[in-house]
């Protein structure tokens, strides 16, 4: 479904990604793990057109999307839940969700998906008329994920969904991530600081260090890899 071919991305003269190549098949959950500053978020930004690569190609369902606008990339079926949520704080929960669906034409399908996200996150249904900025951190993360789902994505990009959340909420969010994948066969590319939880959720994973992919394997094998354990999982 998604393929990066030797992608190099820069911020000015600073090279953030160095010939990154990876692939994601339809229906997979794929984790990208690494230390802060490794280039994980930049990888997502390169896919969704916010920071286009200077070299290399991004292919989605066989189409070269490397230099398409973010709006066109969303229309093709890729949506990102950004780090820090970035909901619209002065819009209500319902209005935030409507913004997620604004490229869609069928009101019937949009209503069906609205009911689906309210089933996933009953808390949002209770607060549908409340301004997004007044929600708790966990509720804002639920809203950010739901807003992305309202675009009916084929590929969902998740950037640090556990950041700043209490452990009980983190478990809930990751349970929902697995459910979204299972219910809709939604392909998910997950960038996550909590490597242990990410690899327990994913089918396969990539390890990134200083802008390069240094390791790729099934999630299970990465969980049992001694180097990964020492570097990212809190010891051997």
Automatic annotation (TrEMBL):
Protein keywords: Amino-acid transport, ATP-binding, Nucleotide-binding, Transport
Residues in ABC transporter domain copies: 2-235
GO terms, molecular function: ATP binding; ATP hydrolysis activity; branched-chain amino acid transmembrane transporter activity
PROSITE patterns in alphabetical order: ABC_TRANSPORTER_1 (PS00211), ABC_TRANSPORTER_2 (PS50893)
Lineage: superkingdom: Bacteria
Record InterPro entries: AAA+_ATPase (IPR003593), ABC_branched_ATPase_LivF/BraG (IPR030660), ABC_transporter-like_ATP-bd (IPR003439), ABC_transporter-like_CS (IPR017871), BCAA_Transport_ATP-bd_LivF (IPR052156), P-loop_NTPase (IPR027417)
GO biological process, one term: L-amino acid transport
Similarity comment: family membership: Belongs to the ABC transporter superfamily.
Protein name per Swiss-Prot or TrEMBL: Branched-chain amino acid ABC transporter ATP-binding protein
Native organism: Marispirochaeta aestuarii
